[in-house]
Amino acid sequence: MTTERAPALVIGAGPAGLMAADMLLAAGFPVILAEAKPSPGRKLLMAGKSGLNVTKDERLADFVPNYAESAPWLHPILADFGPDQVKSWMYTHRQEVFTGSSGRVFPKAMKASPLLRYWLNDLGARGLDLRLRWRWTGLEDGTFHFATPDGPRAIIAERVVLALGGASWARLGSDGAWAPILAGNGVPLAPFRPANMGLRLDWSRFMVPYFGAPLKSIALMAGGQRVRGEAVITAKGLEGGGIYAVSRAVREGAALAIDLFPDLGAELITERLAARPAAESVSNKARKALRLSGARLALVQECARPLPSQPEALAALFKALPLPPCQPAPMDEAISTAGGIPRTALDDGLMLRALPGVFAAGEMLDWEAPTGGYLLTACIATGRWAGRVAAGWSGA
Q1: How far is the C-alpha of 91 from the C-alpha of 72, rounded, in Å?
Q2: Domain spanning 199-328: which CATH class is it, in words?
Q3: For residue 371, what is the DSSP state?
Q4: 302's torsion region: left (phi>0), alpha (psi -120 to 50) or beta?
Q5: How far apart are CA 152 and CA 376, in angstroms?
């Protein structure tokens, strides 16, 4: 087996790994970037299919709390490279950006491919040694082993940044296969958990005609959270931005309820229902007084039959429709994952305490954030931080 020595090694060619390689190259180090897949940035490209949301146009004081319990230790990293810096960085990579009505920031091209193409060309021109189909298979006595198209290979590097993603979307490269390798080298790990995922519900046959139907202008409530958003009824349950926002609370055992009329108070709903003829059916009252029909009415019938006839009780139901017990979608279908390398296993430079000279970044780290630009910003920011600190590493 061939073994080579390198000044710098990065494993994983997603946003965090590319940014770490960028920083190491900027510091003057030749960099080998090993990627298990046939092409880099696959999850980034997938994210760009629905519009590449690179960050959120918020003050840092409003941005950082979205990382919940991870906010304190991520704060200096995001202060170094947060929303403003991400926007500036996009322009330096020939990508004009705009801010949508919700504050989310997108490239004008919307897609990820122009950004990735420019970035890779720039890194290549600066000497990046990108090795595709190089899957990391083990670590023994400081030697990193790989399965490659040319057979087993090994690298001994002075400094290493790991950026292998979490454990969702395995077909795009984030399969969590690195966890046993690190655990076997003394790195403690937090169990993986799905994050920003859809919810699974067992619908009756009466919901089949509404599969694919959107639920717009609703508010979702779970575990003390109340989020305005949208959802989509699917054959498996519920998906959509509003669902992802409350998915952590549901994952942790909270019940889910939906306010079907977040812009109307319960008293006004009661008045409108009470004004309908007493002989009308409950469904007709809801349809004519509140324009409740289609998928929204079907959801009410699915979750709350028999419906109460009293206007006050019916109004209360519409303001907090309880859904049956929900289960998180499987981890491989989640947008992101929680778990991985905990803060206690890292020093302030994101170096693994058990493996001096080895740093970690991106979704390998045990932090969790909602969609809306927070995920990509933290991946880039931690990759930048780890790459810069790794460049200054001078330990034995």
Answers
A1: 29
A2: mainly beta
A3: S
A4: alpha
A5: 33
Does 2-194+334-391 match 199-328 in CATH topology? no
CA 211 from chain centre, in angstroms, equals 25
Q: Tokens 């947060």 label which residue?
A: 82
- Beta sheet of 237-239, edge-to-edge order: 321-322, 256-259, 214-222, 225-233, 237-239, 199-200, 327-328
Domain ranges of the chain: 2-194+334-391, 199-328
C-alpha–C-alpha distance, residues 258 and 116, integer Å: 39
Q: Along the 396 residues of the chain, how does pLDDT read in single tens digits?
A: 789 999 999 999 999 999 999 999 999 999 999 999 999 999 999 998 889 999 999 999 999 999 999 999 999 999 999 999 999 999 999 999 999 989 999 999 999 999 999 999 999 999 999 999 999 999 999 999 999 999 999 999 999 999 999 999 899 999 999 999 999 999 999 999 999 999 999 999 999 999 999 999 999 999 999 999 999 999 999 999 999 999 999 999 999 999 999 999 999 999 999 999 989 999 999 999 999 999 999 999 999 999 999 999 999 999 999 999 999 999 999 999 999 999 999 999 999 999 999 999 999 999 999 999 999 999 999 999 999 999 999 874
Q: What residue type is assigned to position 51 of the chain? A: G
Phi/psi at 201 (5° precision): -135, 145
Largest CA distance in the chain: 85
Per-residue tokens: 260: 């079907």
Q: What does the alpha-carbon distance between residue 142 and residue 358 come to, in Å, rounded to a whole number?
A: 9
Half-sphere exposure of 224 (CA within 13 A, CB side): 1
Closest CA to 103 of 361, 394, 377: 377
Where is 288: in which H helix or E strand?
A: helix 282-290
Question: Number of helices and strands (H, E) in the chain?
Answer: 13, 19
- Quick one: CA dihedral 87, 195, 161, 115, positive or negative? negative
**Nearby residues of 126 by Cβ (< 8 Å), 6 or more positions away:** 25
Peptide bond into 7 cis (omega under 30): no
Is residue 161 within 8 Å of 150, Cβ to Cβ?
Answer: no
Only one residue has tokens 């003390």, namely 224
Residues 6 or more apart whose CB falls under 8 angstroms from that of 144 comprise 9, 11, 136, 138, 154, 155, 156, 157, 160
Tokens at residue 28, please? 């003057």
Q: Name the class of domain 2-194+334-391.
A: alpha beta
